[in-house]
Amino acid sequence: MEYSRITNINDPLFKQMHQLMQDVFPPEEVLEFDLWKEPLEDPGIRVFVAVNEGKVAGATEYRYYDDFNVAMTDFTIIGQAGLGIGPYLAERRLADLQALAASNGKKLAGMFAEIYDPYRVEHYEFGGVKPMDPYVRREVLAHLGYKRLDFPYVHPSWNNDGEAVTGLDLCFLPMNGEKHELETDLIVKFLKRYYTVLPNKPESWYSMIENLEANDTVGLLYF
Question: Is the pLDDT confidence value at 126 over 70?
Fold first, then answer.
């Protein structure tokens, strides 16, 4: 298996990856094909695919914020069970992020991720691929050390239509020991930066930010 970075919308592997996204994710979570041009060319956004026998079998997108010294996993896709794609992507991603942090003179502090709450989005099939099932994915994140941030999470639809997407939790993986809470200042700064690309945000997103800013910390809970 190969861990190959995609930096151009014309890369034949990207067409396969985008189709895989459409097969696995609900429509509001998938950015239109042509809108990927700038993100792929952005050096701060890292899009990698797991290529097995010439075909895209999995993919992950993530980014490292050198000023925050944290990362964000945008998505992880496992296109087929039984190939070890999940562990392969997780190990390669972590090694890459640790190298980026080291080049920044630091040790990676942690990583954000969004995860569906299966009790609220049980109807999503995620392409029928069992490793993508929300129940399974939450267990995997828990084993990796992620914890759920204790606040009602909402994010703007990637359709950029101002609609709110609910049914997810924002999670955080601490890298420097056990943590039971996270500073809201970091969470707010991260969310504002991360969703700059979507100018049409729902009112519920702004309300969420205001509620976060009213507190110093947010609890980190086990799943």
Answer: no
Average confidence (pLDDT) over 49-78: 95
DSSP state of 44: T
- What residues form DSSP beta bridges with 217? 183
- Non-local CB neighbours of 151 within 8 Å, separated by 6+ positions: 170, 208, 211, 212, 218
CATH of the domain at 193: 3.40.630.30
Summarised one tens digit per residue, pLDDT across range 175-190 is 987 899 999 999 999 9
Q: Which domain holds residue 21?
A: 2-221
Q: Are 13 and 51 in contact (CB under 8 A)?
A: yes
Q: How many angstroms separate the Cα of 55 from the Cα of each of 3, 102, 140, 216?
A: 12, 32, 25, 46
Per-residue confidence at 44, pLDDT binned at 50, 70, 90?
A: very high
Number of compact structural domains in the chain: 1
Half-sphere exposure of residue 176, counting CA atoms within 13 Å on the CB side? 10
What kind and span of H or E run contains 93? Answer: helix 85-103
